[in-house]
Each structure stands twice: as structure tokens, then as C-alpha cells.
Amino acid sequence: MNIIESFRMATATLVANKMRSSLTMLGIVIGNASVIAMVGIGEGAKNLASEQFESLGPNVIFVGAGTQEERRTTFNTPQTLVWEDAIAIKEQVPSIRDVAPQIAANQLITYRNRNASEQIIGTTPEYLTVRSFEVDKGRFFSSIDVKRNRRVVVLGAEIADKFFPQQDPLGKKIRVKNINLEIIGVLKAKGAFLGQNQDLTVYVPLTTMANQIVGNTSPYGTQVTIISIAAKDEDSIRAAKLQIENLLRLRHKITGKDDFSVSTQKDVLQIVGTITSGLTVLLAAIAGISLLVGGIGVMNIMLVAVSERTKEIGLRKAIGAKEGDILWQFLIEATILSAAGGAVGTVVGVTGIIIVGALSPLAPTISPVAIVLAVGVSGAIGLSFGVFPAKAAAKLDPIVALRSI
């Protein structure tokens, strides 16, 4: 009997037992769909992180107070950076374009009967250019506003809509810690960054933030949380990072461990990419387990089929079928089940990716490599797990089988 005839017989047998064939394929379907969907969603998360980092502004360098480990393990932000550090960086580092020191804190914001606890950032006018923000209405505060500690505020796009629906917020006043702040501008929508909605942020002059809202707690100057720095161009980032580190070590008289950390967009994006890639691999591996379970299901059902079809196998052997013919028929049945399950699982996985992309901010990608790998692995699993029941069927003694007729 040739392969084509074995294929026809295997197909006819599977079609005749539709329910059993469908249930056998279910594990393979779930496994393939899970692998394809998890890989696609993982790639979407990586792409989203990349887009968000690009939205921070071109060639941005971040100087944070304390080391990254200290910021992760301590509740309060280390107090190791001051405004004077930012001024020194701007004056003494030749490879940078602009510097924007920041003080960030969550505060209760009130307007009449509306209130919300949102992030307030005290900064300087350079923040707009360093972080690539644009003003939608009014203006951003100026260096004069900073020098004179003026009680002015610029709202993010979403918080402006939240507090002043269908109203012009310019000229109105919001209240923060018993201080009235006059709204002078509204920024264009920027979107979220790593879970932090930048459009719900409120911006005030750095001096107003330090002296009137959070208090100036450092004896060495105006304490800041972070310093955002724009390098002149992409080629200048590495040199700027080294120059900033050396300057701050001299200013802070550091001989051992640094009390600050300097990160570039590329550094942080690489860390995020490593995390998302690791999670993608982990999720795909977990999903792959269901493929293995599906393969075991194929083997179990095929073993049941061998016991149920003992008479058929004995009769075929009695009229001249060889062991190879029986072996091929059962192997082809197992492979068809796995391949069909892989095809259906691919459709389900791709559909899931499209739905996730439509209902979430992620932009999942359909990975051809993941599809080929999942379908190939499912077919290989079906073939591998079909070998044992196929051999059992091929070695069945026709005399014993015919006695049961």
C-alpha cells in the first residue's frame, strides 16, 4: 500500500470519528494559539515600551538621586542631587544642549468641588525642549516666573479636561496645599510612560515647588529628584554621560560608590527590552507545555483507537497488509490531527492578537517565526507521540485479532 492510499484511509477514519478527532486536536489548538498569542503580545509590549521611550524626547539622559538599587529598596528618594548640580552640568558639559531639573511629588489638587491626587512636577522652562512637550493653550512658565517664585501652573491635557470640561482653564486657579496657583497654560496630549499618565501631571516653577509646596530640605541647595538632559545629538550621548558622571563625582567629592545614577534612553530601553523578552520566553514556554499535553492526548487517543480497531487491523493483515502499512496509517492519522490542530490554533492565536491590539494600547505583532515554529513543533509532537501506538498496531498478531471477530 502506498503513502497516498494510507493518507486516504487515515483521513476517512478521522472524518468518521469527528467528535473524538476534535477533542484530540483541542490540546494542540490551545497550545499553538497560546504560543503565537504570547509571542505576539510580548513583541507588542516591547514595541510599546520603545515608542514610549522615544516620546520622552530625542537623546535624553537622566540623572537620578541615589543609585538605582537605593531607589528600588528605599521608600524615600535619596537626597543627593541639587539644582546647583544641574546648573554646573549646563555650564561645564560641552556635549549637551539643555538641562531641566525636576522635583516630583504627589499632591491633592482641588478646584471647587473637584479634587484629585496627581503628580506635580516642579521644573524650569527648558523642560519643554528637553522632554519634547508642546503647549496647546496659553504658555509655559518663563525664567522670570522661576526667579520670582510665581504661583503659576501648567496643566497636562487630561487633567485640564478632568477639572474644566468644556471650559477654558486659562486664568482660573487650582489649590495645592492651601496655595492658589493660576493656570497659565495647557500642554498637548503626550500619553502614558511606563504606566505613568503624563497628561495627568501638573507643572509649576521649580522654586515654587521647592519653597512653597514640598519645602527645601537640603542644606546644600534646592534638592531635586531627577535631572533631565538633552545631548546635542545621538553621537554625543556617550561622551555626555561620561562627562556628567565625572563632574558629579568631583562636585560630590566621591571616592567610592556614586550617590547618583546616570542613564540614557538606550540604557533604560535595553533593560525594559530584556525584561519583556524574558517574560515573552517564559510565557511562550508555559504555553508550550500545553503543546506537550496535547501530544500526550494524541498518544492516548491513538492507543484507544488501536484497542478499538483490533478487528480491523487483524482483517487487514490477514488479507496481506504489511506492518509498514499499518504503521504508516496510524502515524499519518496522528500527524493529521496535530497539523490540523496547529492550523486551527494558528487562526485562533492570530485572531487573539488582533483582538488584543484593538482593545488595548499594545500593538502586538504576528510573528511568522512563531507560527512556523508552533505548527512545526505541533506536527513533530504528533508524529513523535504517534510512534508508540502505531508500532503497537503494526505488531498486533493477526490471529489474535481475528479471534475477537
UniProtKB/TrEMBL annotation:
InterPro entries: ABC3_permease_C, MacB_PCD, Macrolide_Exporter_MacB
Domain MacB-like periplasmic core: 21-246
Family: Belongs to the ABC-4 integral membrane protein family.
Location in the cell: Cell membrane
Transmembrane segments: 21-42, 281-306, 326-359, 365-388
Native source organism of the sequence: Waterburya agarophytonicola KI4
GO MF annotations, alphabetized: transmembrane transporter activity
The protein, known as: ABC transporter permease
Membrane topology: Multi-pass membrane protein
Domain annotation ABC3 transporter permease C-terminal: ranges: 285-398
GO cellular component: plasma membrane
Domain of life (superkingdom): Bacteria
Keyword Signal tagged: no
Entry keywords, A to Z: Cell membrane, Membrane, Transmembrane, Transmembrane helix
Chief place of localization: membrane
Pfam family, one: FtsX
Record keyword Thylakoid present: no
PANTHER family documented for this protein: ABC TRANSPORTER PERMEASE YTRF, MEMBRANE COMPONENT OF TRANSPORTER-RELATED
